[in-house]
Amino acid sequence: MITAAAPIVTARLSAYRDSHTLERYLATGGYDALRKALSMTPEAVHSEVNTASLLGRGGAGFPAGRKWGMKRPGPTSYLVINGDESEPATFKDHLLIERDPHQVIEGTIIAAYAIGAAAAFIYCRGEFALGLERLTQACNEAYDYGALGANIFGTGFSLDLVIHPGAGAYICGEETALIESLEGKRGFPRIKPPYFPAAIGLYGEPTIVNNVETMSNLPWIVLNGGAAFAGLGVGSSTGTRLFALSGRVRRPGWYELEMSKTTFRDLIFDDRLGAGVAGGGELKAFIPGGVSAPWFGPEHLDLGLDQDAVGKAGSMLGSGSVVVMDDTTCAVRAAWRITRFFHRESCGQCTPCREGSGWLEKVLVRIEAGEGREEDLDLLVDACDNIAPELGWPPQQTTICVLGPSIPSSIVSGIRMFRDEFLAHVKDGGCPFPPDRLASGAAKGARL
């Protein structure tokens, strides 16, 4: 069901066109939470976040308060905010950066105070041109207002914040690759252990890496209390969460919903939200948490938007991106496009990812072009099993980061759910679905 829970991170941007300005932010209670947090001890702020059971909103869903508690003690530590939102069809962090940058900054300062960070960094994807401009402007305004810099609000707490634009590599959404990029190096993920950021992070110092949406929740939690946040949702999936809905749906867009109590059926079909499948078609499948996630079928529509429930069903909420596929969607083409993205964005460190993604893409293009063989399906599954052994979820690791083992998700889901469709491509000598320009062009190019 859709509950009456008021929005938390989108309350301001839903109501005002100038939500990105300092004037509007202050007029709607902006930086009040920071003043309150600075009147508390860092331990008390940390305790409120623990009470809130705020799950990280970047993909892994690890509790933010617990992550803070893992930081290795030391005289110098850093806070890094991951705004490199690169997952296809995911646009929630982009929204928050562009439309309410002061909320992101206020949450960052609160987190830095709670963990005792010497400096904070917001790593923003460089393609977010308007968002990057507004975030930088908001940072300058926060300094002028006294919310950043030396002796913030006369409390004795000081913090400098750096806005760092990324160069557009998907891999830099992985926290250790992001740290490498911040240090001016190529975005290669680090081997963990020993390079868990909380122990050895930016410049070799303990570092906490959190997501933009995670930070945006902190001002509300400080003002209203962790218990009020934990009162929303069910179990460990507390509060509200932003979902980016796209694909074959009548009303694509972003929706902030109470976790657990709202279902995928609500999100996709309720007239106040997705309003059903576009064109009046039938739902074929949907991706519940970004293109890294295994697909779900119509039988999963009544699952709640719940971290644990979705995990037990064999997928993840991940980046908060829900992609709808209808009965006109070609499963082969969808799997190929996702695989093509991962192949292009592989950093190249690990052989299973670097080589495996390329071979998988070649086989998928061959099938989509009508030149496949029946044994190609077993070949795809076998190659996927070498990248992510046993093809379970969460995947087993054969690479330094999780990008490699995420590649099989769409292929294995497609073959398991729509094997006859893959075989039809082989037996009919082509795709049975009306080709679009991108797919047909790529397939023709592959034959040359």
What does the secondary structure layout of this molecule look like, with pairings?
Blueprint: H1 11-15, H2 22-27, H3 32-38, H4 42-52, H5 64-69, E1 78-83, H6 92-99, H7 101-115, E2 119-124, H8 129-145, E3 161-165, H9 175-182, E4 207-211, H10 212-224, H11 226-230, E5 233-234, E6 237-238, E7 240-247, E8 253-258, H12 264-269, E9 283-287, H13 307-312, E10 321-326, H14 331-345, H15 351-368, H16 375-387, H17 403-406, H18 408-427, H19 437-447
Parallel strand pairs: 1-2, 1-4, 2-3, 7-10
Antiparallel strand pairs: 5-6, 7-8, 9-10
Helix pairs in contact: 3-7, 3-10, 4-7, 6-7, 6-8, 7-10, 14-15, 14-18, 15-16, 15-19, 16-18
Relevant terms:
Rossmann fold; 448 residues; de novo design (two linked rop proteins); Ubiquitin-like (UB roll); globular; four-stranded mixed sheet; 3 domains; alpha/beta
State the gist of this model:
The chain has 448 residues and is an alpha/beta fold. The chain is built from 19 helices and ten strands. The longest helix is centred in the C-terminal third of the chain and has 20 residues.
